Amino acid sequence: MKFWVSRLVGAFALILTVSAITFGAMNILGDPLFNILGPTAGDVSNPESVAKIEAAEAQFNLDKPLPVRWALWLGDFVTGDFGVQFSATGQPPVSDLIAERLPRSLMLLVMAQTMAVIISVPWAIWSAAKANSAVDRTSTVMTFLLIGMPTFALGIILKYGLSIRFDWFPATFVANDPFWTRAWQMFLPALTLALPSAAVYQRLLRTDLITTLQEDFILTARSKGVSKRNVLFKHALRPSLFSFITIAGVTTGTLIGGALVVEQIFRIPGLGSAIVEAILREDFPVVLAIVMIVTITFVVLNVLIDILYSIIDPRVRAS
Amino acid sequence: MSDLGMTEADAVGHEDPYPERFLPHEGDQDDKAEKRKLGFAFWLCTAWLVAVIGLAIFAPYLAIKSPNVNFVQPGERPPYSPSGEHWFGTDQDARDMFSRTIYGARTSLTVGFSAIAFGLLVGGTLGLLAGYFRGKIDQIISFGFLSLLSFPALILAILITSLLERSLLTIAITIGILSVAPVGRVSRATTISFADREFVLAARSLGARHPRIIVRELLPNVLIPMGAFSLLGVAIAIVAEGSLAFLGLSVEKGPTWGKIILTASQSSRDLENAPYMAFFPIGVLFLTVLALNFAGDRLRSFFDVRELSL
Amino acid sequence: MNEHESFHHPGPSRTETDSPLLALDNLKTHFRTERGLVRAVDGVTLTLNRGEALGVVGESGSGKTVLSRSLMGLLPGSAVTSGSVKFAGQEILDLPMKQRRHLWGAEMSMVFQNPLNSLNPLMKIGKQIAEPLRLHLSMDKANARETAVALLKSVRIPEPERRLNQYPHELSGGMRQRVMIAMALACGPTVLFADEPTTALDVTVQAQILEVIGEQRRDRNMSVVLVTHDLGVVAGHTDQIAVMYSGKLVERAPTKTLFAEMRMPYTKSLLKSIPKLADPSHTRLATITGRPPDLVNPPKGCNFAQRCPYARPKCHVEEPALEPTADPNHVFACWYPVGSPEFTEREAELEAAGYVPATVAGVS
Ligand SMILES: Nc1ncnc2c1ncn2[C@@H]1O[C@H](COP(=O)(O)OP(=O)(O)O)[C@@H](O)[C@H]1O
Ligand SMILES: [Mg+2]
């Protein structure tokens, strides 16, 4: 119980810290007023623009000290109000923009992780069952190549090979298509993200499986007459999943980074392109909102991983 | 022969009901023997790296075409396919891809190596201090590393590059900052593994001061495995530059690998009609990254560095 | 045991009683390794009757574990076996792995040394015991559960119902070993291999575990192969003892005979290494100088000669064969056995020189 309390407190502390740093950095290093009003922001000789400046300052709370602004922003954020965009119109509200973009990125990530797991688990089991055979050695080389492959290079190769040369998969995303069509359009982008992760998972799980297969209780299971196959699936797999789960959680961070690039290559208007556009326009509320969403996802995932641990391992549950 | 007592016919080979487990002595020796050799592939990778780095450094003095001249051939629209004149072909502006790839290497490799140099300087030092002093200092530094790691790396890079002017230095330092935590953790782990070896304890008991022990006893020992590890870091830094380029956030001036690959692949039509534009630089980039990974991997197991991935 | 009659094992039928349950003839298990062929078991000939308990003793590394696993067939891929192992009259050494597997847990099962690691830490006790029941006897869940409770009760585990839903880490070492035994006995095997079943346990628990194994053997008319480095363990719990040294059988006799008139100097030093209850708990047992020979390049002559204080030149040249004594059930391989004139002569010399007979370290 104590463990979970400290775990949650830590998670909240991290989210708050990230928001404070991001908020502070953008307001100190950037020039919010300029981003809202453009050149008018610097024009204090003209009473008309001074009025505009004052109005904008009031609207965006720019006249208040930084910590107060942060607190106000945080208060809004918690209620789901991410503020208005830093632009002359401020439209659409950041929440609307996020609501439009988030599902696409989420879908991409979920598809990618699912594919990575679907590819890596059987692959690792196969390799571990045939440790040091030709199959296993080939797999090791393949994972090495995949892990070394940059996401953008893999994206271009897949796009060229599977979509341009052989027209097997769509290469572009159309926002208005029906759900399943869009899911199909996301296949290649998700695969681009999934393959290198799958390679990482495969290596890890294979190693852990081979270690587990040398445990005494595996011999016990064999001596009971359990078939090799069932030994793998019923006895060896579960105890081998721990580092796999940890890494799957950690790589979600990498995956989010990779997703930005993949969204660019396959032209998916998701959070990735939103944050890139926002950064180039120095549209801070959008950047902030996206950074927060990413951080929260990351933190929540880590808590989920702890919960998953305790489900898998009764010993963790007890302590 | 007779005491072997076994002919081919009555010897029964066993299917493997479970992997080798009894006594792994033999396996251990096997591993060590493998570690002591770097192997042919390692030298092949080194040769490739030397070639690429050499070309990049000496490009201005070699008979290589300028990367920015438009070699337009009258009556034909670029891009031009690879030929004796343009080994890798040309891009849409009829610029020679071979020389652009080499000049791209100049920027990309500079970014990669300086980023890791930064990471080694900052992260390596912090890790060394944390690992040597332990206690409070270690706790603070380790928490710092953890916080850095809990930020999706690319988002952090985007934040920094977007707020600053994108010179070669900014990009290198940005990527360098990303490498601080991973490099620091390895450095810390390596330091800890050395910190209670006899020679350090001996130096201590002889009354050597902390700075002296750190510089004279620990640093040389930590530096070698860290060097091996940082090759992997260079590979990752090079890829990071490419990713930034795809977000439009790489070095503003001059070609980089990321930028030329982006230009070559941006439109599907170009990719369809002139795939060589993208695939030659991708090939060079990939081989370089692989060579760095492989060489780093070999060196790492050669020096037996703790497994801690970036 | 009736309920088991109807199940189809590729193995031998239970009605065949005239032949011994296990008969090994010149069994060899060699491992292919980088260094060469490791002769872990090098020509063992033995028989074991139904209901009988055989103790296999020898110091660590003498090949006891490999021997018992060879009999089961649980060997890594690098192992090469030859010779013959007949189980109830049927040759099983060359049985394909798929068929052999059906004997495991059903006809022959194994209990291992370390109960802490021998149970799956992530699986409930009940499920682990039910596994062989469902596999070999095709029981349904409820039936398997009931049988599991009965089994746990029979190995004297208190509150058996509650145990079914517990995980191994919730039980003590002794309890876990009982669970292992219950699991091994689940399908009523005809032979149980217990490889150092008590080595990892407290002394008091050791006795209880051996008691449980003995009880089950009598109740089920099951054969037991009890592997241990400790002659003290086998003393009260076996009918027959086989002493192994560097992969070879060096002495075999009915238990009583062996203790009364052991012939191999090696057996004698093993006996000396049994800690006496009277000894203060940290008495160090003297160890014989030298180590067991290299199994890749075994020495000429008797393998034990180099460490044997009674060895004479002949021992280093010629290998003694297993010879029966007056009692045909007592065989040993030694040129100058305990009681022979040469032995007595050397013993007197040694005693005169103030030599304290040393023992072999019995650490597994
Ligand atoms: N898989 C294997 N590969 C090579 N040698 C092995 C293997 N398993 C056991 N051995 C060797 O066989 C010998 C006997 O081992 P073991 O049967 O475990 O001894 P004991 O159980 O009597 O202590 C040892 O010398 C050991 O090194
Ligand atoms: Mg043993």
Helical residues, percent of chain B: 55-70%
Overall outline of chain B: elongated
- Which percent range describes the beta-strand content of chain C? 15-25%
Number of strands of chain B: 1
Cα-atom Rg of chain C, whole angstroms? 21 Å
| Overall 3D shape of chain C | globular
Order of helices and strands of chain B: EHHHHHHHHHHH
Largest beta-sheet details of chain C? 8 strands, mixed
Number of helical segments with 4 or more residues of chain C? 13
- Average pLDDT for all residues of chain C: 85
Largest interface: A-B, 52 and 42 residues
Fraction of residues in β-strands of chain B: under 5%
For the termini of chain B, the CA-CA separation is 55 Å
Our measurement of the CA-to-CA distance between the termini of chain C, rounded to an integer number of angstroms, reads: 36 Å
Oligomer kind: heterotrimer
Quantity of strands of chain C, as a count: 12
Outline the secondary-structure elements.
The complex is a heterotrimer of chains A (319), B (310) and C (364).
Chain A: H1 2-29, H2 32-37, H3 47-59, H4 66-78, H5 94-129, H6 134-148, H7 151-165, H8 179-185, H9 187-213, H10 216-223, H11 228-236, H12 241-265, H13 271-281, H14 284-312, H15 314-318
Chain B: E1 12-13, H1 25-36, H2 40-58, H3 97-133, H4 135-149, H5 153-163, H6 168-195, H7 198-205, H8 210-246, H9 257-265, H10 268-273, H11 275-303
Chain C: H1 2-5, E1 22-33, E2 36-48, E3 53-57, H2 64-72, E4 79-87, E5 90-91, H3 97-100, E6 108-111, H4 115-118, H5 125-136, H6 141-154, H7 160-164, H8 173-185, E7 191-195, H9 203-220, E8 223-228, H10 231-235, E9 240-245, E10 248-254, H11 255-260, H12 265-272, E11 323-324, E12 331-332, H13 341-352
Parallel strand pairs in C: 3-8, 3-9, 6-7, 7-8
Antiparallel strand pairs in C: 1-2, 1-4, 4-5, 9-10, 10-12, 11-12
